[in-house]
Amino acid sequence: MAALTKSEMAERLFEELGLNKREAKEIVELFFEEIRICLENNEQVKLSGFGNFDLRDKSQRPGRNPKTGEEIPISARRVVTFRPGQKLKARVEEYAGTDPQ
Amino acid sequence: MTKSELIETIAAKQAQLSSKDVELAVKTILEHMSQTLSVGERIEIRGFGSFSLHYREPRRGRNPKTGDTVELSGKYVPHFKPGKELRERVNLGLQAGL
Fold first, then answer.
1. ipTM > 0.85 for the complex
2. Among candidates B33, B50, B86 on the partner chain, residue whose Cβ is nearest the Cβ of A39
3. Are residues B25 and A84, on separate chains, in Cβ contact within 8 Å?
């Protein structure tokens, strides 16, 4: 299925706001890059109406190579989680699609 | 970082645009993303991640106040899967002691 990409987002900024194509592309690029910079600095990102990007530190835990069965530890890591906001959740709930993705 | 801080940061790097323009742009991007998910379509941003919908089966829930059982119908919830670059950069932050 077709998915929304950065180029379509830039296209919409060009059409709806009249930004030139270069500016539109740069803003979309910066939008995602600034969120990444924040998260790599261990800072939460809160976009009201859309959702929050949170960070969780996970400690090392035992794991296994599923192919060989060999035990290998899974190293400590930091992961990003997304918590959708009320408004986004409500809009998505109304979607009555029949084919779960 | 909040939405308004994100707008300020982007505006500081795009001197030729007013903060009002950047504010409209950020709101338009977020609306485009919400709209896409609400019609059941995915979002794919290379190096950042992808958003899709996950289905939740119908279940029997309870009203925590009255204890009454309520039938909850199946529904979709937004899901985010971080991309490789984002995963790696966030982990490097951990290793750098941030």
1. yes
2. B86
3. no
* Cβ of residue B56 closer than 8 Å to a chain A Cβ: no
Contact A5 B77 (CB under 8 A): no
Supply the DSSP string of chain B, one letter for each residue. Answer: -BHHHHHHHHHHH-TTS-HHHHHHHHHHHHHHHHHHHHTT-EEEETTTEEEEEEEE--EEEE-TTT--EEEEPPEEEEEEEE-HHHHHHHHHHHHTT-
Q: How far is A58 from chain B (nearest CA, A)?
A: 10
Q: Which domains does chain A have, with CATH numbers?
A: 1-43 (4.10.520.10), 53-100 (4.10.520.10)
- What does chain A come to in residues? 101
CB contact under 8 A, A36 and B29: no
Domain covering B3-96: architecture = Irregular (4.10)
- The 10s digit of each residue's pLDDT in A34-76 is 999 999 999 999 999 999 999 999 999 999 999 999 999 999 9
